[in-house]
Amino acid sequence: MASITIRQLDESLKQQLRLRAASHGRSMEDEVRTILRAAAAGTTEATPARAAPRRNERAAAESPAPISKPMVPVGHKRILLIIGGGIAAYKSLDLIRRLRERHMAVRCILTAAAQEFITPLAAGALAGERAFTDLFDAASELDVGHIRLARDADAIVVAPATADLMAKMAGGHANDLASAVLLATNRPIVIAPAMNPAMWANGATQRNLAQLMHDGVMTIGPNAGEMAEAGEAGVGRMAEPLEIAAATEALFGDQGERPLADKRIVVTSGPTHEPIDPVRYIANRSSGRQGHAIAVAAAAAGARVVLVSGPVNIPDPPGVRIVKVESARAMFEAVESALPADCAVFAAAVADWRVATPGREKIKKQKGKAPLPLALVENPDILATIAHRKTKRPPLVIGFAAETENVIANAKAKLERKGCDWIVANNVSPETGIMGGETNSVHLVTAEGVETWPSQSKDEVARALVARIAGALTGDQA
Ligand code: CTP
Fold first, then answer.
1. Are residues 338 and 239 in the same domain?
2. What's the chain's average pLDDT?
3. Which DSSP helix (H) or strand (E) runs through 329?
4. Which in 177, 229, 258, 446 has the greatest CB count within 10 A?
């Protein structure tokens, strides 16, 4: 029996077919099928194509169903979930449910490696529509329309984002459906990395991560904990589906309430730990709550946020890129590499001094001898250095002043000395309960004067500050 392919048709026929297919929202091949089906049934009406019976899961995923526009209720967001190949892929099935619970429509792409862990049928069944797997559709000799897949989504979520997928994204590869869609999209991308801790810590992965952040990709996780491999633990577990769903949802705050869209904000938060020896350190009582809340509020306002956090005991906020550090010097380096930015908020309680020569081994008590004096040297002043810088100075630099007396006078002097634009001053005397507590009462000190804000939760302070930042950066001083 003679076989005929679309490619063999003459150009004018192909053009007619293309237009007809486009008007029905079908692939060319499906349009042909529909015409043939109608002809065989003796009808002239081109009825909508129905997927052929599925032979098996893989065949079903490869079935040349058209990329119809997803049926999304008005107001619902469309998420393209790219599932990479890792054991965490099984959590992505739960993620589909979590996204749908939040009224988001989900369409899935599975990489070849993902299909070693979960099936397109399972993803498709949970998403309520066929899962995509291949760049080219062998049956129709047509590409499956990666540009359309990329554009039909409001956001793309990559979970799990394997080291390989991150490398492909960072390098701009497009040799499979997932990478081609990621290269073709102009929509926000959230990645949830998941890999072995050694792979996560590897310089290559960290370089790729830095590139992706620079390109505006948002990350959630990875978290610390036990890995799937027996006996392996560390940073590399994929964030939980609920966290990823919340971060995805946060992308879609009311557009009118996203005044920091496309702005880059760096926030420091928490204390620093300055080592005395391998087991002891100098620290302070900062909980990181205020800095973390500012990062969350800025992300909710649409900003791309890098949160440089000292050691804290509060959860990683979703929707922001977190760089975890211990010491003031490490915090300084992390801030440097997060620049340039439109605004930097220095909320961390950075230790002013570090031990000049921390012990290589645990310092032992010497019986009958006085304790060794600790010689201290000054740490770099991160805020002052960045604020006084001629190049790469963020247009808006905000410092905090933690004071126990003469709050406003000290804050004004700090504004001057540090060279920043605003100081958020607060009284951290023990009786205020602010350090480590839930509420804060602050004064905003600027060149224009001093505003005293009412005592409110740290989240409210964060939202109010972010609203002011948005006003300053967009010139809309509401
Ligand atoms: N800061 C910084 N780097 C330091 C010290 C402080 O970036 N090495 C920042 C803090 O994040 C904060 C501001 O400077 O935004 C003020 O911090 P604070 O501890 O109140 O002031 P100090 O400069 O330490 O001055 P002092 O201890 O004399 O009050």
1. no
2. 85
3. helix 328-338
4. 177
